[in-house]
Amino acid sequence: MKSKSILLILAYFLYFSNCAEILCIFVVPVHSHLSVYNAVTMELLSRGHKITLISVDPRENERNHVNVTLIELLSLKETYESQVQHFLLKPSRFFDHNPFLEILSSVFKNKHFLNLLKNDKKFDLLLMESFGFSPFNALAEYFNVPTVSITAGDALSTEHENRGNVINPVAHPDRLLEFPFAKTFSERLQSSIYWLTFKYVVMPLLIVKCDEITEKYFPNNKVKKYYDLTSNVDLLLINAHPVMGFIRPILPNTIPLGFLHIYPPQPLPGILQEILDKNTNGVIFVSFGTVYKPNYFPNVVQKLLTACENLPYLFLFKYDGVLDNVPKNMIIQKWFPQSDLLAHGNIKLFITQGGQQSMEESILRRVPMLIMLISSDQRANAIRVEDRQIAKVLDIHKNDKINSDDIKNSILDLVNNKRYKTNIENLTKLVEDVPMTSRDKAVWWIEYVIRNRGAKHFHYEQKNIPFYQYHYYDVIAFIGAVIVLIILIFMVILRLIGRFFEMLRNFKIKRD
Ligand SMILES: *[C@@H]1O[C@H](CO)[C@@H](O)[C@H](O)[C@H]1NC(C)=O
Ligand SMILES: *[C@@H]1O[C@H](CO)[C@@H](O)[C@H](O)[C@H]1NC(C)=O
């Protein structure tokens, strides 16, 4: 009897874990973000799920998988990349060069995507990248499935708000701001104005576009308004780990992950392995990621080259282009297997622009970092990591006074001061001391939503309480008013009593 029920339970789980059809949408072509989503899709595929993948830049392992039906958004990538460069270099041009609006209009013109809407394929789940606003949430009702949203880093404040998580511009400035929390008055002012403007000016403008698309492509849906659509998300997976300083109050409908995209290190290609083995004095890896091309900041690169020149280490610099004045102790290459490279014992330091995925790799491989900020949107994350004393931040983006000597001294300190290495080893222990890996956790929760046909039972009803009621300002006002009233009545009574005695005295005087 017992073994029979175990078999039944097993069959139940096998049934669900083998048969799910998952619709995945990943449309923002940022390499490091896609590597996070790829880790999740590959984990799902390895458990026998089938995936229909709408992707702007599918990886080889997704492209070649028998259980992946691919809808590739080919034309999108280049237009998007140029838009992103505009956007990142000049965030003020949010509306005329908004890469996300560009994406939305391109996806809804894609023939294969429109065909998907026409055929009546059955799905069990919508798994979508969440980037603050998108009409893709409407696909959940269209295909009658629950939704899991996922982000490559911390979620935007609007997404936290949609789930009901605490959003407070002082304690938790939006992730696009430059500080992890607003310490000074000017930061509090900046963060509050940013949030209020974003919430009450920017979002409504963007939402108009979303609602237009939903109206047009999902005319039979019951829910078409953006805010109602996003309220229907069952679970939000955020790839932000508490040990990196992402600590904030979140509800059970938000699952923190982190380090999703990192696998055990693979052997290095022959020649690279040789080079690293040989340089026992120390190798330093330099990469500014894939979004920013180093030819956008030639001055920084020249300062760095000068700093490296006389140091007794070998530098490996990921640089896509031609460079003058390359010092003898530097090897330049278009691409390096970063995550595997960082695992080599002779790597002493990682010089990075501070992208979250890069910093995660550095932490898991126990390599201290020199973070050279070349854009303001990495600053908050960099400060969080610096606070853990595993890295130094040079804000070369803001401060042109930083010279090659500053860079050189920072490198020497980070390599020679054992404190950084000890701290990072301690931090890595904390990352690894968990009941299951982030990939297992992500997949467990995704399968949970599939098994239970949603996770609406986690919905936080109280998030719809009006602001003044939630903070019980009405109650405070009422109690205040009652107290004032009592004081007033008391004063009136005192005055009346005073008058009464005065009258009594006057009366006595008259009688006498
Ligand atoms: C594809 O899916 C089927 C059915 O779920 C499964 O049996 C098979 O192992 C999967 N193939 C691969 C390569 O994962
Ligand atoms: C880090 O770990 C070392 C060795 O286990 C220990 O001596 C040290 O106190 C730890 N440092 C901190 C800050 O926890």
Q: What does it look like?
A:
- InterPro entries: UDP-glycosyltransferase, UDP_glucos_trans.
- The chain crosses the membrane at residues 475-498.
- This is UDP-glucuronosyltransferase.
- Belongs to the UDP-glycosyltransferase family.
- This protein folds into three domains: 20-258 and 437-464, 3-Layer(aba) Sandwich (Rossmann fold), CATH 3.40.50.2000; 270-432, Glycogen Phosphorylase B (Rossmann fold, 3-Layer(aba) Sandwich), CATH 3.40.50.2000; 468-496.
- It is built from 20 helices and 13 strands.
- The chain has helices at residues 2-19, 31-46, 60-63, 76-89, 99-107, 111-118, 138-143, 157-163, 185-217, 226-231, 270-278, 298-309, 338-341, 356-364, 379-387, 404-416, 418-432, 438-451, 467-470, 473-511, and strands spanning 21-26, 50-55, 68-72, 125-129, 147-151, 235-238, 254-256, 283-287, 314-318, 330-333, 347-352, 369-372, 391-394.
- The strands form two sheets. A seven-stranded parallel sheet has the order 3-2-1-4-5-6-7, with helices on one face.
- Helix 2 (31-46) packs across helix 18 (438-451), helix 4 runs antiparallel to helix 5 (99-107) and helix 12 (298-309) packs across helix 16.
- The termini are far apart.
- The model has no long low-confidence stretch (mean pLDDT 89).
- Bound molecules: 2-acetamido-2-deoxy-beta-D-glucopyranose (NAG) (2 copies).
- One 2-acetamido-2-deoxy-beta-D-glucopyranose is lined by residues 18, 45, 48, 50, 66-67.
- One 2-acetamido-2-deoxy-beta-D-glucopyranose binds at residues 18, 45, 48, 50, 66-67.
